[in-house]
Amino acid sequence: xxxxxxxxxxxxxxxxxxxxxxxxxxxxxxxxxxxxxxxxxxxxxxxxxxxxxxxxxxxxxxxxxxxxxxxxxxxxxxxxxxxxxxxxxxxxxxxxxxxxxxxxxxxxxxxxxxxxxxxxxxxxxxxxxxxxxxxxxxxxxxxxxxxxxxxxxxxxxxxxxxxxxxxxxxxxxxxxxxxxxxxxxxxxxxxxxxxxxxxxxxxxxxxxxxxxxxxxxxxxxxxxxxxxxxxxxxxxxxxxxxxxxxxxxxxxxxxxxxxxxxxxxxxxxxxxxxxxxxxxxxxxxxxxxxxxxxxxxxxxxxxxxxxxxxxxxxxxxxxxxxxxxxxxxxxxxxxxxxxxxxxxxxxxxxxxxxxxxxxxxxxxxxxxxxxxxxxxxxxxxxxxxxxxxxxxxxxxxxxxxxxxxxxxxxxxxxxxxxxxxxxxxxxxxxxxxxxxxxxxxxxxxxxxxxxxxxxxxxxxxxxxxxxxxxxxxxxxxxxxxxxxxxxxxxxxxxxxxxxxxxxxxxxxxxxxxxxxxxxxxxxxxxxxxxxxxxxxxxxxxxxxx
Length: 545
Known about the structure:
Blueprint: H1 28-46, E1 58-64, H2 71-80, H3 82-85, E2 88-94, H4 103-112, H5 116-135, H6 139-144, H7 149-153, H8 158-166, H9 174-181, H10 187-198, H11 211-229, E3 232-238, H12 244-256, E4 261-267, H13 269-278, H14 280-287, E5 291-294, H15 301-315, H16 323-339, H17 346-362, H18 370-380, H19 395-404, H20 408-428, E6 435-436, E7 447-450, E8 456-462, H21 467-479, E9 486-491, E10 502-506, H22 509-523, H23 529-541
Parallel strand pairs: 1-4, 1-5, 2-3, 3-4, 8-9, 9-10
Antiparallel strand pairs: 6-7, 7-8
């Protein structure tokens, strides 16, 4: 059993999404992009009928965002969306898998991008069409199935012969096929229909000699999809870049205005800029796309949190994921996102969540805990640590402390106590003299001690959300410390103002957590030799010794 009573790990394990992974879609920006694509397809489908598709019934859609932002996932997801599957036949092509690239390999990849289910459905529909023609006593249509006297004697029907053709038990009469189809279909369409009937649909890539032939075949295929399946055609081309062959091919497709067709091009900002420098004419066409889907914000914290949660929601048959669970997991994702720039994209975060889920399952946990994430990062990304941490705080402790100290008052209190503990420890190992009792109520001083040279030092912690209040508190503290030789103010106010006796030290959240982490180890008698050296380094970084 996996966390949240799931029967399987809901997160994808591969570096790129599969069709099953792509069934799940989370994130506001991704859902908005999906809605835009569905709108494009619905709009085009509403404007055409089987008999009226012309070159004006063509749309270009561009999708652009950085690597790992979910572009491929979104493209694959749309294939299963009801509004798309009911209105369009989809071919998905990943240009990164095509080498060498030339017009024939590109066309072959587009044919391969159609699903086997589509090929089977088109073949059956075409054969049913021919059967209907034969049943309406079209002589040439009957000859297609080689239906003769002996078939009649044996009790076979035209339907039986059509089934035999579907099972590849008979070969069609090609001369009769030409006679039946030539009145309604072009020669190129007939060529494709013959391949469809034979079950060799994708072999058309071997029949074309020029780019003009390929465009004519794509045009014919789009018309056939509309004629037989009453659906438009959606070509998705992923990893589109500035490769010369790819650019010339796509330019020809755009210029041809394939009827009843949507061309969707997917690329990164870097490849888009390369295209701009390589081919001004293609770039101009991309700039004039009917729909320009920029998944800006797809790697924001809010987007990634929603995506991470959506995977669990989708698999949560028992409805065990509570609002408290969602808040808890969102808080953990927030820490990872804030502290590790490497994980600020959808792909990387999902990898973390996959391994953390596996870890939690091995330990029979009901939720993903901090230790699961800590061990995941240590095992999957060895050597990675919290940015700026002098105490080498483990991820699990870092997450716990951050969550506990989300409240600013709790954080300030924790840092005050931690500073006292650090000074006491520095005294115990002989780095400073014995601390004094901090007298003078209300002066804001947290600890007073003498250094090894006899200088009397006071330390005050000033942490506020409102930095204006911090400045006021700092000013009051500076006025009330004439009884010491040196004053150190630890603050998050990001200020350099002070006085000759008052030294302002800006401490960020990471340093605050370092302090609290040390304090926890100090109070639990868990300070080791390495911890001791890092603690003194931490004290020196804040001018405490």
